[in-house]
Amino acid sequence: MSTRRAKLLEATCRVIALRGVRGLRVEEVAAEAGVSKTLIYYHFRDRSGLVTSALEYVNDRAEGYAGVSDDDDAPVRELLLRLLVGEFQDDRAVRENSAVWGEVRAAATFDEGLRPVLATLTERWLVELAEVIEDGQDEGDIPASVDSRAAAVRLTSLVEGLSGRWLAGLLTTAEARSHVAAALERELLPDAQG
Amino acid sequence: MSTRRAKLLEATCRVIALRGVRGLRVEEVAAEAGVSKTLIYYHFRDRSGLVTSALEYVNDRAEGYAGVSDDDDAPVRELLLRLLVGEFQDDRAVRENSAVWGEVRAAATFDEGLRPVLATLTERWLVELAEVIEDGQDEGDIPASVDSRAAAVRLTSLVEGLSGRWLAGLLTTAEARSHVAAALERELLPDAQG
């Protein structure tokens, strides 16, 4: 990605994280980035293209701070935990990412145009998590009776729910992380019906 | 509550569920309810009072459709399930309630004025659920090792997370309900560390 494009998306995220996506005006992003509106339209076509690109940008950025690399050889349960608790860190960028995601999710209730990108990125996260669970099953670290996709849906939904409370100051970072760890442990138990 | 006050709050919920809380203007609510702005200011003092009252109203309304009464003698696990899955119903009012809640939660990230009412109502929900778990423990239906409050935090956070996906069309009502049931089952297992 060009540096300019990245800078425009960083400015967009700052504006969304501060004031929400519904109030977002291209003028504000232009002012925040110190460029003309025309440049933004040139790069992202319209407001909706800008928001979609910002969400993808946030997603890529989140992969950087999850602390998991492709050739990581940590135990599978440890990897899963890191993939999930990475969302809760006392770090400005992490909090901003979480705020942008939460905001776009809430806005998608009202704005159907946001749903395709939300569906795609949510699915990517789910599949990533389910694949790690399946790796663990192949290696014998996770019971074969665990439904990898269902567990991934519940764990990622829990993270999203906790994230809303964390951002609103109802939960500390440590509390959010410990709830994720406890839920993960429960999801990886052998399924009685399995 | 007076009929007039209830009607004003219903109109407020419709406006929030349609367009979100950040775009909410007292004029719109007045137009939706067919009354003057002055009447709204008379009942709710200001915009923030209106939003707070609407959230409390939604909460009271939700208790009506959860299908749980104080003298209910259903098994505790069944009561818990009903308290949680009541949030997911193919019903306009339930969906609207959920949208209003989700919207206020998301807005609280940006608007600290919304946090006190959010904290109070979230706490009430948590305590209600934790008390039912404790009743089940007293009756011997739920293992004593279950941490009632921690389980309640996770289960309600999961419901909030699933709710966002459900409202955005990423999950069906049946899927959301079945994930809640599965998580509840896992939370009520004896805690290995307990």
Automatic annotation (TrEMBL), chains A, B:
Keywords: DNA-binding, Repressor, Transcription, Transcription regulation
PROSITE patterns: HTH_TETR_2
UniProt xrefs under Pfam families: TetR_C_6, TetR_N
Keyword ATP-binding: no
Record protein name field: TetR/AcrR family transcriptional regulator
Transcription listed as a keyword: yes
PANTHER family, per the entry: HTH-TYPE TRANSCRIPTIONAL REGULATOR RUTR (PTHR30055), HTH-TYPE TRANSCRIPTIONAL REPRESSOR BDCR (PTHR30055:SF200)
SUPFAM superfamilies tied to this protein: Homeodomain-like, Tetracyclin repressor-like, C-terminal domain
Record feature DNA-binding region, as residue ranges: 25-44
UniProt domain HTH tetR-type: residue ranges: 2-62
Organism of provenance: Streptomyces aureus
